[in-house]
Amino acid sequence: SWALRKQMGFEFQVESGEDYAKTDPLYAGKFHTVVRCKQHGMVSDPGAYVKALAQHFEDSGGELVLADVTGLGQDNTGKPFLDSSSGKMSADKLVLTAGVWSRPFMEKMGIKVPMESERGYHLELKSPESYPVNPMMVASGKFAVTPMKGRIRCAGVVEFGGTKAGPEDGPIKMLRTHVESLFNDLNYDETEEWLGHRPAITDSLPMLGQISSDQEIYTAFGHQHLGLTGGAKSGKILSDIITQNPINLDLSPYRPDRFSA
Ligand SMILES: Cc1cc2nc3c(=O)[nH]c(=O)nc-3n(C[C@H](O)[C@H](O)[C@H](O)COP(=O)(O)OP(=O)(O)OC[C@H]3O[C@@H](n4cnc5c(N)ncnc54)[C@H](O)[C@@H]3O)c2cc1C
Predict the structure, then answer these.
(1) Residues 212, 250: one domain?
(2) Which atom of ligand 1 is nearest to the CA of 68?
(3) Are 78 and 144 members of one domain?
């Protein structure tokens, strides 16, 4: 709730839709009330962001291999390995970060992971004639609008349908109806639709840590709706765990084996 956010120190300001339109004229006449949340960030091009991270990894001496992983575990000498379409690979440490697809690998190692895909969709308006100034969560339609490079992205919907089935028409139609009603007077070139998988564990917490003290296999998945937001922090925590840097946090709620005990 907003009261809880306030209690936890989040800064926000409630204003009328009319006042907010002075900041963001694209929304003139669209909202009754807007809550302006301070100190938020956004990524203007998530694809470019991930590519830049991969480039940074390579520039720092890492080797990027794009391959399908078919199995992983620990060999007789205690070294982690994985089988892949590029052959068998072994390493001193292995980190499993396959999002919702991590579950079968964990289950093969005997670790229970109550995780499902919360499927979500986005609709992008390409080359719009103007852009919103800020990202906006449209509470009435339960979707988020983000101004991105060359497009406006409108993302939302939670659907349980697994990872194998393709996109459904119903959710995207619902999203399109809300988006077209919000931007009914905006010109843009075309739209693009996308289906993605949020890796959602039943307690909404990621699995972050070593799978057991005698295996050099670590996990970092299960960030549900907030993987882009939480990824950097989780990466830092995991690197501290692996390099045995002291961490001033209770990580027990994130234990990868918390459902197996
Ligand atoms: C519509 C929508 C909107 C969202 N909006 C936001 C947002 O605004 N902010 C936010 O923080 N988060 C958002 N999220 C959530 C975010 O996208 C996820 O939390 C995040 O992508 C999870 O990251 P991940 O790396 O764990 O998994 P993924 O991004 O799913 O990546 C897993 C990777 O593993 C690869 N993989 C899987 N199996 C194998 C295999 N066998 N071999 C090799 N590779 C494999 C996949 O190809 C994939 O590249 C949104 C999600 C959706 C669907």
Answers:
(1) yes
(2) 42
(3) no
Does the CB atom of residue 204 touch ligand 1 within 6 A?
Answer: no
Whether residue 199 has its Cβ less than 6 Å from ligand 1? yes
Same domain (yes/no): 121, 197:
yes
The pLDDT averaged over each successive group of 10 residues in the chain (261 residues) is 93 96 96 94 95 97 97 95 97 97 97 98 98 96 96 98 97 97 96 98 98 96 97 96 96 97 70
Of all protein residues, the one whose alpha carbon is nearest to atom 25 of ligand 1 is 99
171 lines ligand 1 (CB under 6 A): no
Nearest CA to ligand 1 atom 19: 227
Q: Closest Cα to atom 22, ligand 1: which residue?
A: 227
Do 180 and 147 fall within a single domain? yes
Q: Is residue 261 domain-resident?
A: no
Q: Please indicate, yes or no, whether residues 124 and 94 belong to a single structural domain of this protein.
A: no
* DSSP conformation letters of the chain: -HHHHHHTT--EEEEEHHHHHHH-GGGTTT-SEEEEESS----S-HHHHHHHHHHHHHHTT-------EEEEEE-TTS-EEEEETTEEEE-S-EEE--GGGHHHHHHHTT----EEEEEEEEEEEES-SS--SS-EEETTTTEEEEEETTEEEEEEEEE--TTTS---HHHHHHHHHHHHHHTTT---S-EEEEEEEEEEETTS--EEEEEETTEEEEEEE--GGGHHHHHHHHHHHHHHHHTT----S--GGG-TTTTT-
The pLDDT, as a whole number, for residue 39 is: 86
Q: Is the CB of 241 under 6 A from ligand 1?
A: no
Residues 77 and 109 in one domain: yes
Range of the domain at 62: 46-114+203-254
Predicted confidence at residue 133, as pLDDT, reads: 96
